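Structure first, sequence second, as always.
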């Protein structure tokens, strides 16, 4: 059976990415870095092994913003839309759930809930930063 695949696009369609297989994790991220980059109070993150993320078109149409060496954020030069964020030290690439209209986004947790702007009461686990298996403290936050 072939891998599942999904297409991610920037707002204008100049950049297209294909992700295949299953993500490592899906989460709502509340970190100040994601909020600032996306101008949104929360981010729908899908974390993929880097080898599962392939550019279909427009890789040369991306601009790179490195807020830190752990977070390489890429946006479309034409429309300015955020597309993905590489996290080389962590070993995953975050392809924004909002860029994949056919992807069945089903987050299993909230990360960096200690930095939240808005409370979300949905019964999902809420980590003050990240789960221990992703390099965080593993500490839980109250809903």
């Amino acid at each position: 059976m072939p891998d599942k695949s999904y297409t991610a696009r920037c707002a204008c369609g100049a950049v297209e990415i294909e992700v295949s297989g299953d993500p490592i994790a899906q989460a709502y991220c509340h970190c100040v870095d994601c909020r600032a980059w996306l101008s949104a109070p929360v981010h729908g993150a899908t974390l993929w092994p880097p080898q599962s993320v392939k550019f279909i078109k427009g890789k040369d149409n991306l601009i790179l913003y490195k807020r830190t060496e752990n977070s390489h954020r890429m946006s479309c030069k034409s429309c300015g839309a955020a597309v993905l964020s590489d996290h080389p030290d962590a070993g995953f690439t975050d392809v924004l759930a909002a860029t994949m209209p056919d992807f069945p986004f089903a987050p299993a947790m909230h990360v960096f809930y200690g930095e939240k702007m808005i409370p979300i009461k949905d019964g999902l686990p809420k980590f003050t930063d990240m789960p221990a298996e992703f390099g965080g403290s593993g500490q839980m936050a109250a809903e």
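Margin note: The longest strand covers residues 62-68.
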